[in-house]
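User: Sequence in, structure out. Go.
Assistant: Echoing your sequence, followed by the structure tokens.
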Amino acid sequence: MKDVAQISTSYARNDPYACDSPYILQCLEYWHGLKGERFAPAWQDFEWKMLPAKIIRYCGVVDVKTNPMDFVYRFWGTAHATVHGVEMTGKSVMDIGSISESRSVFDQYRETLEAKTPQLFTNSITSGQGQNPMEETSLRLPFSDGGETVNHLFAYSDISQHMKKLEEAFNAEIADSFAG
């Protein structure tokens, strides 16, 4: 895979409990209700119908793999498929078309895995030189099947404000990678 420097990404970690997004707060509240006294809820307890229907397309779920560490999509929301131009269910986060984007997402999942707590990231995505960055917020939540290790990670990424621009940027990067 060739990275044509069309897209660059960076991120900063934020306090998820200081966020004012109602959807992020709803996801956090649901997660806390499921976890009870455990460090994280079990994935089998999760029910999509408990989330606002309009955000499901902005969600993703990965299964945690070890030796080597990897994160494989169990669920890839339709908004992500539209923006990236690819269906990622069953694929590694490292298969996301943009090397910069895949590394950023991998690192955020790794940080959430290590922390074993909800993590909130502000992602800055720049397309082309001299362009203003697009910012989006991603909530990452750990799930544990056995109560000791993190086996799954849920993500809600609020990309709704920049859908068209992100789609154009990722499509341009894909086109450039085939041209070069």
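User: And one key feature?
Assistant: Residues 99-115 form the longest helix (17 residues).
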